[in-house]
């Protein structure tokens, strides 16, 4: 059994990590920490867990987290993660970090969009935890920077096209729509039910911090720097992300070539499912699962390809993918503990 | 492994049965039938199941259902169930029927609220599948009438009070609120998104067919006939039922006696969870699980006790409870295949 | 033109007051105040008002509010209202107070459920602003205590029955369900979209502060003190309240007598609409309007009458009713400025 | 007073037309027709209208509709409209048609995307009813083809940019998101609450029939044929459309030039509101109103401009715009009867 501890376990990604862990056949959850809820029983804080987990939130201290752990998940805010991660690694555990702190190969990019980095030397060791792109490196990693929710949905939509040179990288536009849980569990007017319900809006147009993370990975696939437009929107629902990705095809690209690219690129990937021709996915069909479902269409009128990708932002976009990374880092099957079907309705 | 077939598998309770079955460690799902979807792959009809189940909907024929099955679930409309169940029993399988056809001990009650019964002689063999009340009888049953969603929530709320004589049976009022999936998957104006969303209403006030089913079980607990008021309401959400049950206490009843009744009555029940004193449950904390969570309060001003119960209408109110019944009928642990925590948010 | 000022205009009831006022043919809105938004333009704070109102939030000072006003609406929290109202009255304006501070005839009742009252002597001058019960007194009032949202829905449901002696007052149970805007616009975990959406719960069971207000008015109708059970619930929608009111009929009451009571009691009331026999209302059919729609049924099996009432909690349950009170206090037709139909879908 | 009749009044656009008409100070509503509801009172069909309108649905016959009317609104399905409109015009009334049948200047375009046109000769007389583009022609028209909901939101977003030559027309991508009422009131699985709620999806990717309508108007603005990508999505909410429009700027375009274009183009337009710099609109801020609110940003990294537009799909996207067109056709102020502020929350 792999022994697991979670730092920052009281938010939605924490809930989702615990939900998966208590069902995971190869995992024993040994500690959860939360500064705000320290000393409280998990099942008093979240009555949903009554009968499922008897842990108590402890102090977010490296000694506590590594007391009885092989892997630690850090579900902390940016900056708090890099304060914690080095001490965890020093104590010999593997770390999956769900913040943005270890997603960037180039610390300068991180610093341009976030803040000064305290451990830039770790950036080169960290692996970007998107299994479809970096499976082997993740297997060997001791630190994984778990991808953001929007980047997961967008990179998986564009990867086969860029990898095969089927689109012109500079034409990529990603129009994304997310449920509210992506904003976290903190109370604010922006997530007040009455401000969200029956409304739809764009936010951080042209300035969302997930942009450089997407561009890093698309640039690696394209073999050159890529700039994109990325527009996030807020959907009045709790879970789910849908990204609609547009790109102009390269000379010579055909509908068949595009189809082949998707099928070949994701051959053998347990968590990417391809829609039948002419079909497009709904977020409902992946809810609560680690799947990313993809549909696409080549429009000969405009010579653009439109790809629609859906994920559950808390599962594939955060905690499920983190577990997937742990599985790989620990030599387990990629899908261990993640085999339950989506929830519907 | 128990071999399971499902008749009427294309609706929401069918989806939920399949979702549970494909994760159940002791079950192999061998056939699903649906008249409307006959010949279609399950995962084309419900893309959510892609990668999880490769079955094809077959003809709803007893020979098909019993071809390779120990237990058959009938998730059919009233009347269609009693056309199918006798033939299934004749072929030697056990049956869990999710319709109302086998919930009534007295066929005359069924006929007063539904229609003429075609197999009244089976009514006396059928067991009402509420494990907390009839666990031993379910273990020995070959036919279980799986309870309705509202009745499950209401009977579990009132049972300890009636069993101990702590309330006057004739004072019971059950005010229930259900998510929309309780209405099934059929298209109608009543379930049109824009007719449901941002609205709240009562329906079938004083005439809902779940009334006699509730009264049957409450009468058994009270040791005499019971008439109640039951008012169902429609909540603009997909899943969940909350019932608020009111009753005037009997002479001599105390707050402590009421607390004791709940704790003793549900001691050892794996799926009933009691709130801490002063707390009341939300449907969110049981979503996707087989739990029934209960909170209550004695109001000395009016000498009434108010009990609030929550269930997931598709899991505990239908398919999860049906699986629980199958577990008991087959000698498995009551909670087999139903151990996953609730979904939140 | 009546000159109107609003204290505490930045919340949902403030929005709704302004929305009505800018359309009201006999009103000129002259000042809005808000401590938190002081100095900001209304239409920057609420872009919805761009082009409809150019006012700026001012300091919540009696001198500002009465600078150019005949009537002041105080949409302030409890306690803040009684700090402000006496000074407004001293300056000669009429006041409609939307807090609980002036709803109680007996200051001792207020103090038992809220806090010490600073101006108990004003309580006897204040009129409870439910036009169907106190129309004439409201016309003569200079201070109206505008009813709570739940009490409006419950009192209107029960009034005809109590006024005619058709039910036993001690048997009244009010099970109420409200949209989230009733909790106000303040940010908190309790109103976080993901904590509300797809969930349903009861709250403050047996201890909600609207209880004594309901009992005061029902007691006046019954001619004796009345204690009730009142259970509020939170519905995942923005607007609307539905109350389901149960009562055991008095000896001799008949279905026809009950029908007559409703029709006679509300004859001529412009904002109470009675459902056709056998029909029950949905909150959707009153959204955005000042209507209260009522449906009822006598159940001979239990000898109880069940009344279902629906209102829009922000319009009839707060701001629309406040405008209605202003109309009466100023000699305008009761429905002035409130004639627009409900919003659907 | 203008006498108005409505054909096809039982759906959501019919409801919205009636809602506006009963408040319109210059209108008397004289007849409503509906084949399905013929003979039924409006306020029995829609209890929301009780007390607001006493009309009865009549037979959808030109003689009935023109019996006492100056203007007839045809809110009928495609094809049914062109069966009715010629007879209405022959009887001398003005017509605002809410279907697609009279939106196209070139009948061949209509026939390529819809079906054979029965009255192609009327197409040249019909005016596309977008007041910001065709105000003067609408004033003189006797037949207006009222724009589709998506096209309204997209054309208004792109018009200033194309009119000034600030963007390259062939780079336009419109990613649109609509509430469910856009699908109409007919029952189907696609609008079942549980299939929509908590889900988000794209549909008719690359093949939605609003495409040619958008291209027609953008082409007129650009002075040459334009092909775009238009992707509609379904949002789990009842009302509202948000379109995110992307375009690459032309050589020499600047952020200031773009700002100027919007401000100049919409100077004096009563129903277009421009966001402050750096702000983007939510559908909530226009709900129930005829406004179109616009926000935009030039991204120097990619040299694209992103425009976000929001409308209420039933008001500005259908019935409110239709009333606006009637106002212009009848010499009334453009905003007559449409002055009420948006609804929030």
Structure notes:
Four copies of one chain form a homotetramer. In chain A, 31% of the residues lie in helices and 20% in strands. The radius of gyration of chain A is 20 Å and the shape is globular. With 345 residues, chain A is α/β, with parallel strands linked by helices. The first copy, chain A, folds into two domains: 124 residues, NAD(P)-binding Rossmann-like Domain (Rossmann fold, 3-Layer(aba) Sandwich); 165 residues, Dihydrodipicolinate Reductase, domain 2, CATH 3.30.360.10. In chain A, the strands form two sheets. Chain A has a seven-stranded parallel β-sheet with strand order 3-2-1-4-5-7-6, with helices on both faces. In chain A, strands 9-10-8-11-14-13-12 form a seven-stranded mixed β-sheet. Chain A contains twelve helices and 14 strands. The model of chain A has no long low-confidence stretch (mean pLDDT 98).
Quick recap:
With 345 residues, the first copy, chain A, is of the alpha/beta class. The first copy, chain A, folds into 2 domains: 2-125, NAD(P)-binding Rossmann-like Domain (Rossmann fold, 3-Layer(aba) Sandwich); 149-313, Dihydrodipicolinate Reductase, domain 2 (2-Layer Sandwich), CATH 3.30.360. The first copy, chain A, is built from 12 helices and 14 strands.
